[in-house]
Each structure stands twice: as structure tokens, then as C-alpha cells.
Amino acid sequence: MKLSQFRFDLPLNLIAQNPTKKREDSRMMVIDRKTGTIENKHFKEIIDYFDDKDVFVVNNTKVFPARMYGRKEKTGAKIEVFLLRELNKPNKLWDVIVDPARKIRVGNKLYFGESDELVAEVIDNTTSRGRTIRFLWDGTDEEFRGMLEILGETPLPKYIKRKPDEEDKERYQTVYAKHEGAVAAPTAGLHFSKELIKRLEIKGIRFAETTLHTGLGTFRPIEVEDLSKHKMDADYYRVEQTACDIVNKAKEKGHRICSIGTTTMRSMESSFTAQKLLKPSEGWTNHFIHPPYNFNIADALVTNFHLPKTSLLIMACAFAGYDLMMEAYKKAIKDKYRFFSYGDAMLII
Q1: Helix spans in 239-321 (H)
Q2: Mean pLDDT for the stretch of residues 190-206
Q3: pLDDT in tens, 55-79
Q4: Using CB atoms within 10 A of its CB, is residue 154 exposed (0-12), middle (13-18) or buried (19+)?
């Protein structure tokens, strides 16, 4: 398939700028692949679509405050530094994106905080906007993390046109977030409150956890028309034995597996056996799922409404079927569903 097939006109006012008052109050479009029906519901009604011993697989990654603002030495020019990943813990080496990049060269020092609480030195150019920096820090690792918490801000995507506030610290994070390492929230999971999870568990639905640290590559524009030539950025993932036991037992007994989000789906599709069972593994995945594709583990998917021509929309089309998904998106625009990270949900069964 071609990239241009995933183009559609999205009114900008449908990109959600704030979360709903309560997590599970977001709307949910339900798409049935067998019947081709599309229904409008609310997320809390997801409980009606699953039964005792079905399994929800979630991504327990935790977003860290990745966006920082520093000053360049001598000139004092304001520089945005977006932390992508820690490359070396003892040496405090980080992979970052800087903006404006043209001003930042190897050897430059950057100062963060009103009293220069944190200083970093640029030690390498990686891409046009990418740099490797080393934080110059004498304290403990715990104190360093604390300083990042104070000086960094919640990395809301650029499509959200406002400054992050205190509420975002909690709401741009799933209630089951555990392992820090993501620069973007696994947004399908944002619709779950602790109360809703409790109600699902009382019904007999089990939860299995995987980890995939979402990087900025998720949002990187696809620039090739031929999708088979697109290279995804690699993200770190881990699937543990506990999750495999829960998922495989359910599969073998004929119960359903629902992937909560595209990142969870990528983890599972990077880690299955010839018998189409989940296997434990950990590493880096650059798995790009596009139609046509046979999914191996999940038979249902919860995902948000994505922007045109993104890898997330393309994966959703691979799961639901291209024509049905594009029809659903037309309906979503007509019915004014909210798009993107803080937007509404879609359940594909």
C-alpha cells in the first residue's frame, strides 16, 4: 500500500487539547470487523464487550519529564532540549534533540535552571537536530533524577498547543505506569481509571503487562510513498514470562486477547512462537506493521484516533481492514470525535 492512501482531512479543532474530566468518560467508537458495524459508545462500556478469563494486555511504560529548557553559554540563547534516552548511566550520557539546532555545536555548554542547577556539555552530533550530551553532575543518581523531575516538563506532543500544567503530570501517564523510559504516553491506556480496572477484574478479565518505551519515532513523519521502504526508529521493549503465561493460557482455552494500544501490539508482534503464542524476550524493535499483515496474538485492539499518514493509523488499518477503518474515520470526523493523545478511543473487535 501507498502512504497517500492514508491521507484524510482532519479539522484541527478535533485535536484534543485537554483530557476529559474523568478518564473513562471519553467516547469510544466500536468497530466490529465481522459485521462491519460501527457504533458510538463511551469508554466505560468496554466492560460489555469482554467476558470472564479474557485478557487485556497493557504497556506499563512510564513517561519521564523529557522536555527541558536551557541556555547556551556566553550568548544565553534559549534552547529546547528533548531527552530521548539515557545512553550511559554512570557518565550521564543522553541522546537528545535540540532546537534551534543550528546554534548548538560540539563543545558547547548548556545551563539549566535559574541558578544553573544543571550543566551539560555537547559531545557529539548524531543527526541534523540530534546531539549526545553529557550532564556534569557530582551528586548521586537519585539526586540527578530528582533534578530532572524539577527542571523537566511533561513532554506533551507539539499538537497540543499549550504549556503543560500540574494535571498533565498525572493525566499524561497511565494509572499502571511502572517502568520509566517513554517520551510519549501509550495513549490507549490513558482511558483506564483504577475503578474501571477493578470493575473489569471483578468481571474476571485478567491484565497482563508488557513494556515498550515509546520514543519520538512513533510521531516521526513517514517520508516514503512505498510503505515497505519505511524504517521505524527502534524502541526498547520487554515481554516477561508472567505476561506470556497469562496470555497463552487464555489463548489455549479460546479466550480473547485485547491489545491496549499499538505499542503493546508492537511488543507482542515482536515476540511470538511458531504456534502463535507469546514468548518472553527483550531488546529493541523497529517492527513496522502495515497492510496486509496477519496478527499473531491479539484478536481485539483499543487505540486512539490518529493523525493522517502516521504509522499508528497504518497499523490500525492493518488490524481492522483499510476500507472499514477509513469509513470509521469519516464517521469520527462527522461525529466530532476527539483525536490524538488526549482524544477518544476506538475498540476494534
Answers
A1: 241-252, 262-269, 311-320
A2: 98
A3: 999 999 999 999 999 999 888 899 9
A4: buried
User: Exposed e or buried b for every residue in 237-246, given b needs 16+ CB within 10 A?
Assistant: bbbeeebbeb
Contact yes or no for 279/190 (Cβ under 8 A): no
Number of helices (H), then strands (E), belonging to the chain: the values are 7, 17
- How far is residue 335's CA from residue 349's CA, in Å, rounded to a whole number? 20
Task: Report the chain's C-alpha Rg in angstroms.
Answer: 21
Grid cell at residue 184: 510519549
Asked whether the CA dihedral 92, 106, 108, 98 is positive or negative, the reply is negative
Residue tagged 511458531 (cell numbers)? 274
> Which of these ranges, 36-50, 112-126, 217-231, 292-306, has the smallest mean pLDDT?
217-231
Q: Does the reported pTM lie above 0.90?
A: yes
Cβ atoms of 262 and 285 closer than 8 Å? no
What is the reported pLDDT for 270? 97
Whole-number Å distance between alpha carbons of 169 and 317: 31
- pLDDT the model gives residue 216: 77
What are 226's three cell numbers?
A: 512505498
At residue 232, φ and ψ (nearest 5 deg) are: -75, 150
Alpha-carbon distance of 62 to 174, in angstroms, equals 8
What does the block give as the cell for 345? 478511543
- Could you report the per-residue pLDDT of 234-279, keeping only the tens digit for each? 999 999 999 999 999 999 999 999 999 999 999 999 999 999 999 9
**Crossing angle for the helix pair 322-334 and 311-320, to the nearest 10 degrees:** 120
Q: What is the pLDDT of residue 79?
A: 93
* pLDDT at 218 (0 to 100): 74
Please tell me the distance from the alpha carbon of residue 216 to that of residue 79, in angstroms, as a whole number: 18
**Any residues with CB less than 8 A from the CB of 29 and at least 6 apart, and which?**
38, 39, 40, 41, 328, 331, 332, 337, 344, 345, 346, 347
